[in-house]
Amino acid sequence: MFITNICSFSANRLDWSETKYKDIDEWIKFGKKHLRRTYRNGGVGPYAFDCSGFTMYMYKELGYALPHSSSAQSDHGEKIKATHIKPGDLVFYSGSKGSKIGHVGIVIEVTDEDFSFIHASLKQGICIDKSTHPYYKSRYKTARRIYDMSSGKSKKRDEEETLPEPTPQPQEEELELPGQTTDIDTPSNDKTVDNNNSVDSNKHTVHKKKKKESRRERRKREKAEKQRLEKQRLEKEKADRKKQENARKNTNQNTKKEVVKEDKKDSLKKEEQPVVTKKTHIVEKGETMYRISKMAGLTVDELKELNGLTSNDLKIGQVLIIEK
């Protein structure tokens, strides 16, 4: 018992120097890297989560073992008033029907008017929502502070013994709320919430009856998950390459069409040019009235008279009569 209590005390302290993070902002930044990760019932990461699986995963990074249940997590730490919420606190919500706790998130930012929290949503996976959103505002239940983030110490728990390291397994109790969308209260979401919430109260009993997953089985499952994700990644890369090839083909086709159009324009311009005979001359760049008159064996006045000109000004492409 003495050894157990010492381990419990040390496990409940938050010493940033003994973690990967220098402060809470860096820890929250780590959490944001998981945005848009898939929601999966019973998921504990790092590629898929349910709501309590994500909070458990985040606090495990700090050396604190939370149970895999939103309702059970609400018994940890110190109860905090809504007006005293700080980044790092856990916030809990009820479902669409009933009053039981079935959803949990982590506060990441607090303002005078509201707070933002990161959580695992059924529709959007890992996402960020505001406390003032009607869906969450009407279902807010409580907040708990696991750690005193300013001093670096955890709040004393009611139980002295540390919980055993939770084993990832399918959740039956997990209550999930939809993300911030326009149709936030669809019947399908409420049904999911009710089913999950009804099992939440029997969570501990169910876990006692379940057979623990062996290390070998867990490794096998994690390996299969990695292979599945790698397959998805390869398929996505293949699809992206195909899109790029199609875009390149379309670009080449458009370029060819433009070249054909330009060739047609050039041919039309050539057809529109006046036919030069022995009695006419088309003015080219650099030519003057005097030079053309000498070439035609005429005087400047004669050349101007033949063409009805009153000045010596010429334009490139102008057609002049050079024979009487």
List the helices and strands and how they pair.
Layout lengths: L1 H10 L12 H9 L5 E2 L8 E2 L1 H10 L9 H4 L4 E3 L9 E5 L6 E10 L4 E7 L3 E6 L3 H4 L2 E6 L1 E2 L4 E2 L32 H14 L2 H7 L5 H58 L7 E3 L6 H8 L3 H8 L11 E3 L3
Parallel strand pairs: 1-2
Antiparallel strand pairs: 3-8, 4-5, 4-8, 5-6, 6-7, 9-10, 11-12
Helix pairs in contact: 9-10
What's the short story on this structure?
By secondary structure, the protein is an alpha+beta fold. It contains ten helices and twelve strands.
Mean pLDDT: 77
The rough form would be described as elongated
- How many domains? The number is 3
CATH level-4 homologous superfamily of the largest domain: endopeptidase domain like (from Nostoc punctiforme)
Distance N to C terminus: 127 Å
Name the CATH class of the largest domain: Alpha Beta
Task: Output the structural class.
Answer: alpha+beta
Find the count of extended strands (DSSP E, 2+ residues): 12
Determine the strand fraction and express it as a percent band: 15-25%
| CATH architecture name of the largest domain | Alpha-Beta Complex
Our Rg estimate from Cα atoms comes to 39 Å
